[in-house]
Amino acid sequence: MTPAEDLIDKLKMHNKKPKYNRGWAGMVLPFGTRNPERYTFGDDFSEIIGIIVRLSLGLKAKVDNVAETFLAQILENVTIDDGITASEIATLFSIETGADKIPALLKYIPTDKFGFEEKQILGMTQAAAYIVNYASLESDTVWREFVDHEESKDIYTSIILENLPVLQSAKQDKDFITIDDDNLRKYMIQDLHVLLQNKAFFLQHIQTFFGFYYFLSLIRQTMLISQVADKEIPLYFAYDKEKVSASRMAVAKGYNLLNNETKKLLVSLNLLDYLNVLAGNNDATTYKSLSELISLNSDDLLLNLKQFNFAYAKATDRTENTPGALNEEIQKLRTWLNEDIDQATQTRFRKPFDEIERLGFVKKRGRIGRTLNLKQEMILVLTAAIVGSVPEKRLLVSKLFDEFAKRGINMDKQTRDHIVALYDEVNILEKLSDSGDAQYVKSIL
Hints:
This is DNA phosphorothioation-dependent restriction protein DptG. The protein is mainly α.
């Protein structure tokens, strides 16, 4: 079977209109086209932290509330004075409140705690699995040591750890593919390892860290899925508390650029999956980005794409199909897919980018529309990770902003000035000259 015949078979396109299937090598994004299964987000990212931890440890994603089992174990194994009631013991040894101090309790955060329906939990699990794959948490010994090997330094911790129920192991159902994104992944893992060295700070901000990097990775993957050139397009953010005019970079080259890409995301992703099948890339290890496929300029890919486009034109009753070069054949198929895939389906697929606004990463700013948004906590958490990674435990302001840019967070001068003012306000700005050239940001950790 040729690659073109393989793709025709996968789309069930034997002289009839295709089924727009995808994801044979794995999922690139944790998105779907069915509303009930979409992760709609709560007020923060805390509802999937437990799932992230469980999946990274090879445990079953869904866990019911184990509080009753845990309490029964304590009452059975620990000698307790007669004057102390079971409800007082339950409050004292609460898994929910203990997770703020003991990382080993994170995996016990129940799936049903936040009131999500069963189908929504599927979407939450996919988002968590995406993060686990993106940051390679399953194989990260530093992370696994943090969330699974707690030292019993006091009687309270010992009682908790010795009476926790055993959770069920499980294999992941969905495999995810990360498209050529080593830079952002590298910085995410680096920042994670720095923050893990300060347990209290990390546990306080764990949902912000994972939530923001989830958003940054979705931005990066979205741009890589559709862009034809191997060159990163800088996107600009604005500070949450600043006023923004229509002429600012965050308006012209921020959310609006991303939003345009998300509108065609389903078509771009289907196209990329089809091209990888036609190139013979049938698993996650060989899967390539669009820019990589174009740069290879493969004669085999062009031949297979022409064969597929001929069959597609016939199946969809198109009469015009003049053969062209690789870029022309790709653009032709993209146009056809955009015309043929239901627009309502395309809108539902990119809906998570609207939903994520609840987490504060996107902000509506009146008549000028939306901007990519930096809230104070996000700034300080990333600042803590970046500055905490250098031996001197302080960093020039200009160097710090360079580090933000490496993570895909670009800012114009006005936004930078507001963030420097924030550093001054929280007392981590160190001024060594009146000119402003020698300003350092001190470590928060």
